[in-house]
């Protein structure tokens, strides 16, 4: 009995753990009540506040800033009668103003989110009603988990939906995921396996299955689960069956699905993290100086409190007649008087901590971002894209970068692949005619630049590696079409098109994108099996979709059908396959009966031309990567063309064989870990199960059959490796092609693979190991070399960045020889510099290599010799170098080199390298890339830059800044980065100076009033001096000032070192500004003091000129610091002075009995009638600013001598 109860308890725990990791979804038609009550509904709410929660929640958020808490505390302290310095209501004004401005901004942003939420929640969709037995229109917000939804073409998905039915005859549904990942190429989604063979329309009321799937998560490329039918049969579910919220249905008239995740549990909403927030280096330095301001405030308040206590103590028992009694009416002791005065002076001197500084910085940064966006030099006409700033608060960091980490493919290069050379069965085919033709086109590129600007721009993703001679229809992302017309020469038109390669292109009758190699073409016509297999692999080992050029988003429907219908199912972001279970069943059936080939070859009289011409002008290829497109078009040039793709079969057209349909059993997809992809097909002529694999040579070579299996294969491998090295030396991207006949082991492998597919926990690892078991003992067919051209301006940009003192590291997954060749081409490596190459097969050999390299670099003690070194390291050695015990040694070698090139590096290694340099060297880092494999690197760096290139928008969406081209990085850093840093650094220092100068005026007065906390300046001026009268000019200067012109900054990149070394904001500069502020306050205080000595003027008549002189001095000080004067600078200064006098005149005229006995009435009016007032306004600011005026002259002379001195000597 005990054993039974214990087993029952364990069973309940197991079920509970399973329920915690998975969710069960039942159809809402099964029960009268909602069967999924615990899951989120589809109503979204991205707003922060409600009408009731806005005020407390917003104040709570604002009080996370220490400065806001400090100022509120000071304002509340002013309500205590014994320590108050101002009218309590007046003291609240600045704090309330700052909090109100921020609250209004937050409220407006939240209102915009509310409007967007309302619009989305009230969109319509068709939902099945069990009461009415039909689909009815409902709002998105009314959709629930378990509802059946009917989707129509061009409709946006309201939730994450499991696809159960499609009007497509192949049970496919095409979606566009641009709103999720920025990719405009179509993705195929497949109906759940058990619903494939429905001959009638899907009836939700007859649905009785239960879905078990994983909990909601933000992984867009993963969905794991299974569906259990009433019969007990269980079918696997994967990402290919899931339609994500926000995607758009394309090319499918109608589809039906069941809602799995709704509302905030959808993958799109879970990925909506809002804007990125980073703290800039300058902001961190500023916070240190704010802390010092607090210390200064406490010191001067303590000094004044002690002075007041001593002053009170000297009277002894004879209290002064003006002494303030305690609230109980008794005399206060000197100690208590000092304590109360300390709190009073905290209130009086509060402006030493600049309350408006934080708001001003935010305003200036927004204005700087706007100006960067308006720079037309950062606009790319070809792609019609601007620079994007996705992080508003780190613009000044752009001017302080020290290390740049860059991807290669798509970042330094175009990522637009052109097939150049190949080797098949150990024989190299150089394609010399093709190379000469491409060289001729590239020479003509410059001649066509002007023609392109007149003839219209080509969209970024239009044509593939084909150089068409006929008119072609080009489709941009916005679905607009542009047609090239005119009577241009064929070569010129081809040269224009060759510069704009992308993933999809119309296929025309003349395949001039590749000029076939005559020798290879002859051997192909001779029907050599290795060559045919090589081109079959190029044609089918991919995910290319065939579509029609007239309707680019419609898949070509072939006129044939396979006899046995199966569907592709693969189950993870890593691997996908057709129905493993149905394939396994079919294999058992075929053991007893032999099936006829699905397709018969064409008659012998077929000449390979008629069908080619029929199909060639009607098809368009759409690939997920430019490599795939280049290889498919290369095969097409040899009349081995892909003409149709279905989930379970791929149809190709081969010379002398015609159309053949390969039954597609599995697709083992490519990723950055596997670095290869494979397709498992059934050959239509031999009925053999064949695996075709393509991938990086570093991976494929390790998966080949052992060399002792055959002398011919060994010879092919050795020759192919030599040709791969030659291709890489020429800067070509290389891929190896291999195959394997897997009849005997396939059935056993399939059984294991089916178990991996149906697993929910650890499925990715199981599938990875399953694929590895199949992709072994491969037979090498050949290799390809594909050219990826450098982007325009990359060598010049790299050279300029290096002259600016930036260390550039390139982190790439490419072969070492390819990466080195590109590094020389883009001037990252110099032929004259010595190159250290670290390639180690083990950690022991790496240690010896790194020690020898360390000793070599340590000999170069002079900075000049250090910068003549370049380091090249491969991925395996980098893995050893990143070990905790060796990373310091590696970093020591790497930092002594002028350039570092990391080859064969994985995405994880890229991020680890960036993190290592940033944390160990304490330097500012920038990472730039264009693909999903660069995201981790971009997010780890201080500043992440994404290139909106050929690999989707994942890098852009993860970045702080997005650029259309790498060359724009030069102006972004050297010009805008320099300006942003210089402006903000000077503005922050000016803020500290201005506030300290104003507070010091009050401090000097304490020596003449017994340290009583009195002020000779009217409290209205005290409150609004920094908030209104002196605020606008510094905002204009902080936004528009330019210490050096853009032309000079780009001509002299060395000026960027100013920001790298934080020359504009050194710690001593804060103290120099404090000293300057105290000096100026002494001048502004004592010149009026001696001018009005022995006169009978009242306190405010003496204090008002001091306020005026302080304002003039502060504004003139800003004028001296301003390098570039515009009409806005003049206008802001005039406006500030006018505002001050207007407020003063109106206030003094309307306040006859405000603060008796000292009264501000008519004070300013009397001052304007006194010649002495004008004399003071002339003498005092000049005297105060004389040292500040002389200092810039000395600095300019020193800079001139430093920069021009050697030339003057010559």
From TrEMBL:
<feature type="transmembrane region" description="Helical">
    <location>
        <begin position="1172"/>
        <end position="1189"/>
    </location>
</feature>
<dbReference type="InterPro" id="IPR032630">
    <property type="entry name" value="P_typ_ATPase_c"/>
</dbReference>
<feature type="binding site">
    <location>
        <position position="408"/>
    </location>
    <ligand>
        <name>ATP</name>
    </ligand>
</feature>
<dbReference type="InterPro" id="IPR008250">
    <property type="entry name" value="ATPase_P-typ_transduc_dom_A_sf"/>
</dbReference>
<dbReference type="GO" id="GO:0016887">
    <property type="term" value="F:ATP hydrolysis activity"/>
</dbReference>
<feature type="region of interest" description="Disordered">
    <location>
        <begin position="452"/>
        <end position="494"/>
    </location>
</feature>
<feature type="domain" description="P-type ATPase N-terminal">
    <location>
        <begin position="35"/>
        <end position="89"/>
    </location>
</feature>
<dbReference type="GO" id="GO:0045332">
    <property type="term" value="P:phospholipid translocation"/>
</dbReference>
<feature type="transmembrane region" description="Helical">
    <location>
        <begin position="90"/>
        <end position="108"/>
    </location>
</feature>
<feature type="binding site">
    <location>
        <position position="409"/>
    </location>
    <ligand>
        <name>ATP</name>
    </ligand>
</feature>
<dbReference type="InterPro" id="IPR032631">
    <property type="entry name" value="P-type_ATPase_N"/>
</dbReference>
<keyword id="KW-0479">Metal-binding</keyword>
<dbReference type="InterPro" id="IPR036412">
    <property type="entry name" value="HAD-like_sf"/>
</dbReference>
<feature type="transmembrane region" description="Helical">
    <location>
        <begin position="66"/>
        <end position="84"/>
    </location>
</feature>
<feature type="binding site">
    <location>
        <position position="934"/>
    </location>
    <ligand>
        <name>Mg(2+)</name>
    </ligand>
</feature>
<feature type="binding site">
    <location>
        <position position="407"/>
    </location>
    <ligand>
        <name>Mg(2+)</name>
    </ligand>
</feature>
<feature type="binding site">
    <location>
        <position position="733"/>
    </location>
    <ligand>
        <name>ATP</name>
    </ligand>
</feature>
<feature type="binding site">
    <location>
        <position position="930"/>
    </location>
    <ligand>
        <name>Mg(2+)</name>
    </ligand>
</feature>
<keyword id="KW-0460">Magnesium</keyword>
<feature type="transmembrane region" description="Helical">
    <location>
        <begin position="1130"/>
        <end position="1150"/>
    </location>
</feature>
<dbReference type="InterPro" id="IPR023214">
    <property type="entry name" value="HAD_sf"/>
</dbReference>
<feature type="region of interest" description="Disordered">
    <location>
        <begin position="1"/>
        <end position="21"/>
    </location>
</feature>
<dbReference type="GO" id="GO:0000287">
    <property type="term" value="F:magnesium ion binding"/>
</dbReference>
<feature type="binding site">
    <location>
        <position position="409"/>
    </location>
    <ligand>
        <name>Mg(2+)</name>
    </ligand>
</feature>
<keyword id="KW-0472">Membrane</keyword>
<dbReference type="Pfam" id="PF13246">
    <property type="entry name" value="Cation_ATPase"/>
</dbReference>
<feature type="binding site">
    <location>
        <position position="407"/>
    </location>
    <ligand>
        <name>ATP</name>
    </ligand>
</feature>
<dbReference type="InterPro" id="IPR023298">
    <property type="entry name" value="ATPase_P-typ_TM_dom_sf"/>
</dbReference>
<dbReference type="InterPro" id="IPR001757">
    <property type="entry name" value="P_typ_ATPase"/>
</dbReference>
<keyword id="KW-1133">Transmembrane helix</keyword>
<feature type="binding site">
    <location>
        <position position="814"/>
    </location>
    <ligand>
        <name>ATP</name>
    </ligand>
</feature>
<dbReference type="Pfam" id="PF16212">
    <property type="entry name" value="PhoLip_ATPase_C"/>
</dbReference>
<dbReference type="GO" id="GO:0140351">
    <property type="term" value="F:glycosylceramide flippase activity"/>
</dbReference>
<dbReference type="InterPro" id="IPR023299">
    <property type="entry name" value="ATPase_P-typ_cyto_dom_N"/>
</dbReference>
<protein>
    <recommendedName>
        <fullName>Phospholipid-transporting ATPase</fullName>
        <ecNumber>7.6.2.1</ecNumber>
    </recommendedName>
</protein>
<keyword id="KW-1278">Translocase</keyword>
<feature type="binding site">
    <location>
        <position position="628"/>
    </location>
    <ligand>
        <name>ATP</name>
    </ligand>
</feature>
<feature type="domain" description="P-type ATPase C-terminal">
    <location>
        <begin position="956"/>
        <end position="1190"/>
    </location>
</feature>
<feature type="binding site">
    <location>
        <position position="934"/>
    </location>
    <ligand>
        <name>ATP</name>
    </ligand>
</feature>
<comment type="similarity">
    <text>Belongs to the cation transport ATPase (P-type) (TC 3.A.3) family. Type IV subfamily.</text>
</comment>
<feature type="binding site">
    <location>
        <position position="904"/>
    </location>
    <ligand>
        <name>ATP</name>
    </ligand>
</feature>
<feature type="binding site">
    <location>
        <position position="813"/>
    </location>
    <ligand>
        <name>ATP</name>
    </ligand>
</feature>
């Amino acid at each position: 009995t005990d054993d039974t109860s214990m087993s029952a308890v364990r069973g309940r725990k197991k079920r509970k753990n399973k329920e915690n990791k998975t969710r069960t979804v039942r159809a809402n038609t099964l029960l009268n009540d909602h069967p999924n009550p615990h899951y989120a509904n589809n109503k979204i709410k991205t707003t922060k506040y409600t009408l009731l929660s806005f005020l407390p929640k917003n104040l709570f958020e604002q009080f996370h800033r220490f400065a806001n808490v400090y100022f509120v505390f000071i304002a509340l302290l002013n309500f205590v009668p014994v320590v108050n310095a101002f009218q309590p209501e007046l003291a609240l004004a600045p704090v309330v103003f700052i909090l109100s401005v921020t609250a209004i901004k937050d409220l407006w942003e939240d209102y915009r989110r509310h409007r967007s939420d309302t619009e989305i929640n009230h969109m319509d969709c068709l939902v099945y009603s069990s009461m009415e037995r039909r689909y009815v229109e409902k709002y998105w917000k009314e959709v629930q988990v378990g509802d059946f939804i009917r989707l129509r073409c061009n409709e946006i998905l309201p939730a994450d939906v499991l696809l159960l039915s499609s009007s497509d005859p192949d049970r496919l549904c095409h979606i566009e995921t641009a709103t999720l990942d920025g990719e405009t190429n179509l993705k195929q989604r497949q109906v759940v396996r058990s619903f494939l063979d429905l001959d009638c329309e899907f009836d939700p009321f007859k649905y009785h299955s239960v879905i078990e799937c994983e909990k909601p998560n933000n992984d867009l490329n993963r969905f794991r689960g299974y569906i259990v039918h009433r019969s007990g049969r269980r079918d696997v579910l994967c990402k290919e069956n899931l339609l994500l919220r926000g995607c758009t249905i394309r090319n499918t008239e109608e589809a039906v699905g069941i809602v799995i995740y709704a509302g905030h549990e959808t993958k799109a909403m879970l990925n909506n993290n809002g804007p990125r927030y980073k703290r800039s280096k300058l902001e961190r330095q500023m916070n240190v100086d704010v802390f010092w301001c607090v210390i200064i405030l406490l010191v001067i308040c303590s000094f004044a409190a002690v002075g007041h206590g001593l002053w009170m103590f000297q009277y002894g028992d004879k209290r002064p007649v003006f002494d303030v009694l305690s609230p109980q009416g008794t005399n206060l002791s000197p100690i208590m008087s000092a304590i109360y005065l300390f709190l009073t002076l905290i209130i009086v001197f509060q402006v030493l901590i600049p309350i408006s500084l934080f708001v001003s910085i935010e305003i200036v940064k927004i204005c700087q971002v706007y100006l960067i966006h308006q720079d037309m030099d950062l606009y790319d006409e070809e792609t019609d894209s601007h620079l994007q700033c996705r992080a508003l608060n780190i613009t000044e960091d752009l001017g302080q970068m020290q290390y740049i980490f860059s991807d290669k493919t798509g970042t330094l290069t175009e990522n637009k692949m052109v097939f150049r050379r190949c080797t098949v069965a150990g024989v190299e085919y150089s394609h010399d005619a093709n190379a000469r033709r491409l060289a001729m086109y590239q020479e003509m590129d410059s001649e066509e630049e002007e023609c392109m600007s007149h003839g219209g721009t080509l969209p970024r993703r239009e044509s593939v590696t084909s150089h068409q001679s006929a008119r072609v229809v080009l489709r941009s992302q916005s679905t607009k079409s542009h047609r090239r017309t005119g009577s241009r020469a064929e070569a010129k038109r081809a040269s224009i098109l060759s510069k704009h390669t992308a993933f999809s292109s119309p296929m025309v009758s003349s395949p001039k994108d590749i000029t076939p190699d005559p020798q290879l073409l002859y051997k192909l016509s001779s029907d050599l099996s290795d060559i045919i297999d090589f081109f079959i692999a190029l044609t089918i080992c991919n995910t290319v979709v065939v579509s029609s050029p007239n309707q680019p988003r419609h898949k070509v429907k072939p006129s044939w059908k396979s006899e046995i219908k199966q569907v592709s199912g693969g189950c993870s972001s890593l691997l996908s396959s057709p129905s493993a279970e149905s394939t396994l069943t079919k294999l058992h059936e075929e053991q007893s009966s032999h099936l006829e080939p699905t397709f018969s070859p064409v008659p012998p009289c077929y000449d390979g031309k008629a069908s080619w011409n029929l199909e060639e002008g009607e098809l368009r290829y759409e690939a997920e990567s430019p490599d795939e497109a280049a290889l498919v078009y290369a095969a097409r040039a040899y009349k081995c063309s892909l003409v149709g793709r279905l989930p379970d079969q791929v149809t190709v057209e081969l010379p002398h064989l015609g159309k053949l349909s390969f039954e597609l059993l599995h697709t083992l997809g490519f990723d950055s870990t596997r670095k290869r992809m494979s397709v498992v097909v059934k050959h239509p002529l031999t009925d053999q199960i064949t695996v075709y694999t393509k991938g990086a040579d570093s991976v494929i070579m390790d998966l080949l059959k052992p060399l002792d299996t055959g002398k011919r294969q060994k010879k092919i491998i050795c020759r192919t490796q030599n040709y791969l090295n030659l291709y890489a030396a020429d800067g070509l991207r290389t891929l190896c092609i291999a195959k394997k006949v897997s009849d005997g082991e396939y059935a056993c492998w399939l059984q294991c693979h089916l178990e991996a597919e149906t697993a929910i926990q650890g499925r990715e690892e199981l599938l990875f190991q399953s694929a590895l078991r199949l992709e072994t003992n491969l037979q090498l067919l050949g290799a390809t070399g594909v050219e990826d051209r450098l982007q325009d301006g990359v060598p010049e940009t790299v050279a300029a960045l290096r002259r600016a003192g930036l260390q550039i590291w390139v982190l790439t997954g490419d072969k070492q020889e390819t990466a080195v060749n590109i590094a020389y081409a883009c001037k990252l490596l110099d032929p004259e510099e010595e190159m250290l190459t670290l390639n180690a097969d083990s950690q022991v050999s790496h240690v010896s290599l790194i020690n020898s390299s360390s000793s070599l670099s340590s000999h170069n003690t002079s900075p000049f010799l250090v910068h003549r070194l370049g380091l090249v390291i491969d991925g395996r050695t980098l893995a050893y170098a990143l070990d905790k015990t060796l990373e310091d040694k590696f970093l020591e070698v790497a930092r002594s080199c002028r350039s570092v090139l990391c080859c064969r590096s994985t995405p994880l290694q890229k991020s680890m390298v960036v993190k290592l340099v940033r944390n160990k060297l304490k330097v500012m880092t920038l990472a730039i890339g264009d693909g999903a494999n660069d995201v981790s690197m971009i997010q780890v760096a201080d500043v992440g830059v994404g290139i909106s290139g050929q690999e989707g928008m994942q890098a852009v969406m993860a970045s702080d800044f997005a650029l259309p081209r790498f060359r724009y990085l030069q102006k972004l850093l050297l010009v805008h980065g320099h300006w942003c840093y210089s402006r903000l650094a000077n503005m922050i220092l000016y803020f500290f100076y201005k506030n300290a100068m104003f507070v010091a005026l009050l401090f000097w007065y304490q020596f003449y009033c017994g340290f009583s906390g009195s002020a000779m300046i009217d409290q209205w001026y005290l409150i609004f001096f920094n908030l209104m009268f002196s605020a606008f000019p510094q905002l204009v200067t902080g936004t528009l000032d330019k210490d050096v012109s853009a032309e000079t900054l780009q001509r002299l990149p060395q000026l960027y070192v100013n920001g790298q070394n934080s020359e504009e904001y050194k710690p001593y500069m804060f103290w120099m500004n404090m000293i300057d502020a105290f000096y100026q306050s002494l001048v502004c205080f004592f010149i009026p003091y001696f001018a009005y000595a022995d006169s009978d003027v009242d306190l405010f008549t003496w204090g008002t000129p001091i306020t005026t002189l302080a304002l003039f001095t502060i504004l003139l000080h800003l004028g001296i610091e301003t390098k570039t004067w515009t009409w806005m600078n003049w206008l802001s200064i005039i406006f500030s002075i006018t505002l001050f006098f207007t407020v003063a005149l109106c206030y003094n005229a309307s306040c006859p009995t405000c603060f008796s006995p000292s009264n501000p009435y008519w004070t300013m009016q009397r001052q304007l009638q006194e010649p002495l007032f004008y004399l003071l306004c002339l003498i005092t600011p000049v005297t105060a600013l004389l040292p500040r005026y002389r200092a810039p002259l000395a600095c300019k002379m020193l800079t001139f001598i430093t920069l021009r001195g050697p030339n003057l000597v010559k």
